[in-house]
Design goal:
- The protein is α+β, with helices and mostly antiparallel strands and 238 residues long.
- The protein has one domain: 2-Layer Sandwich (archaeoglobus fulgidus dsm 4304 fold), CATH 3.30.2170.10.
- The protein contains six helices and eight strands; from the N terminus they run H-E-E-E-H-E-H-E-H-E-E-E-H-H.
- Strands 3-2-1-4-5-8-7-6 form an eight-stranded mixed β-sheet, sandwiched between helices.
């Protein structure tokens, strides 16, 4: 099966309607990976926060060198590089007894993807989790309405939003101006959370431009990279 076939299958298995109780969410997770080009390694992080208070409960890190047989980055296929990392990180979190989030914010896209199967959708479908994609930059592909992407960069007010549609007319992302920066976030359904509810959760999580669960995961992994120094400290961490 080709990567394209796998993504089409994952997209077919994904549900973009809410099947969890949004009003009962107690914990939200943020998934992020910091890649270190100097060592060809990475630090993946899962930060778990209370919802809606956004108090940090715990952060789990996975620090490793990139495996020799790891797939190279290819546009549209980032999930094949990142999902195995998240799979291992989530298993580590379970083994350590970290509270399981009710929903996960993933740094990347979900349905907002050329085959509607970004990394947030991979994580959701393959792990059986409720996920939301949160991207910091616009995604351009043949199936994305470019006029919507251009309009998303001109949202006039903080808190404003606009829809991003596919060329078929389906709304597959919400561009959300969550902070003073004129650059919006791009929120999309990953799995088991509809787009409207995804936007509601992300808005609640935005104490700054970046939703707090992802911000904490990114902040922690970058701090650890600085502390470990070149070569990620010479090896893997448990």
């Amino acid at each position: 099966m080709t990567w394209e076939d796998e993504q089409l299958q994952i997209a077919a298995e994904a549900t973009h309607e809410t099947s969890i109780d949004i009003d009962s969410i107690k914990h939200v997770g943020g998934l992020d990976i910091t890649w270190d080009p100097k060592s060809e390694g990475y630090i993946a992080a899962l930060s778990v926060l209370t919802y809606p208070e956004m108090k940090l409960v715990d952060t789990v890190y996975l620090v490793k060198k990139v495996a020799e047989d790891a797939p190279e980055y290819r546009s549209g296929y980032l999930a094949f590089r990142e999902f195995p990392v998240y799979h291992e990180l989530l298993a580590l979190a379970r083994a350590r007894g970290v509270p399981a989030p009710d929903v996960y914010l993933v740094d990347g896209n979900g349905q907002y993807h050329i085959r509607e199967a970004g990394v947030a959708t991979h994580v959701g479908v393959l792990e059986g989790l409720a996920t939301i994609g949160v991207a910091k930059k616009a995604y351009i592909a043949d199936n994305i309405n470019r006029a919507d992407v251009e309009a998303s960069n001109a949202i006039p007010t903080v808190g404003g939003e606009s829809n991003v549609r596919s060329t078929s007319g389906a709304v597959i992302a919400t561009a959300l101006r969550s902070g003073e920066s004129r650059y919006p976030l791009y929120v999309s359904s990953g799995h088991m959370v509809g787009l409207e509810d995804a936007g509601r959760v992300v808005r609640t999580c935005c104490l700054h431009r970046i939703p707090e669960p992802i911000r904490q995961a990114d902040k922690g992994s970058r701090q650890m990279l600085r502390e470990l120094g070149p070569g990620l400290g010479g090896g893997d961490l448990p």
